[in-house]
Amino acid sequence: MTLLRVRGFDIHKGCLEPARQAALIEALRPVLKAAPLFSPVVPGGGQMSVRMTSAGKFGWYSDASGYRYAEAHPSGRPWPAIPDPVLEIWRQLTGLEREPECCLLNYYGEGARMGLHQDKDEADFSYPVVSISLGDDGLFRIGNRTRGGKTESVWLNSGDVVVMGGEARLMYHGVDRIRFKSSRLLPKGGRINLTLRVVT
Ligand SMILES: O=C(O)CCC(=O)C(=O)O
Ligand SMILES: [Fe+2]
């Protein structure tokens, strides 16, 4: 495991060994069953190429009227609890007493991407966002605190964990593309990214 620091983003390469990655996928199965993936509509009216769901008290949600945290899945059912092996990573890397209230699960299938954005729907930016990559490689792009300017990119591989805290907390970031089927963790291919967030 090596720590790479890019513009304040702490990138823990190879943080999770293969057995731990497989255990995480197992722990996520019941989450996906209770709260199936959906494709959010964005305020402009388009649909995200990433499919998503959440675990925790709050889930991230978007429709034509905007982005927000919601207390229920679009089905109307509450979000399932954040699995313990996921919380364990938060505790290990942040050392914080406070626990995340949202685990957003993004699934990137072939061709999916996520445009540059800031994570700013949370109330307190002094808490970091912890991002866990599983499955196919994803090209993560890091920008600045404001839109535009030079960016830097780094490939995130299965088992990498990024801590976005401090100066990085409000910096633009996104995923340009994935290398579909570069990993065998997910039988059908694709990339799962989990982001752990303190919301309120
Ligand atoms: O997929 C990733 O690595 C980043 C996801 C992300 O930035 C987000 O969900 O806000
Ligand atoms: Fe983000």
UniProtKB/TrEMBL annotation:
Q: Which SUPFAM superfamilies match?
A: Clavaminate synthase-like (SSF51197)
The keyword Metal-binding is assigned to this record: yes
Any signal peptide, and if so, which residues?
none
The domain of life is Bacteria
Protein name per its UniProtKB record:
Alpha-ketoglutarate-dependent dioxygenase AlkB
Query: Known InterPro entries for this protein?
Result: Alkb, AlkB-like, AlkB-like_sf, Oxoglu/Fe-dep_dioxygenase_dom
Q: Which cofactor does it need?
A: Fe(2+)
Q: What keywords would UniProt list here?
A: Dioxygenase, Iron, Metal-binding, Oxidoreductase
Q: What is the lineage of its organism?
A: Bacteria, Pseudomonadati, Pseudomonadota, Alphaproteobacteria, Rhodobacterales
The molecular function terms of the Gene Ontology recorded here are: dioxygenase activity
The Fe2OG dioxygenase domain covers which part of the protein? 99-200
Q: Which Gene3D superfamilies match?
A: Alpha-ketoglutarate-dependent dioxygenase AlkB-like
Quote the PROSITE patterns the UniProt record gives: FE2OG_OXY
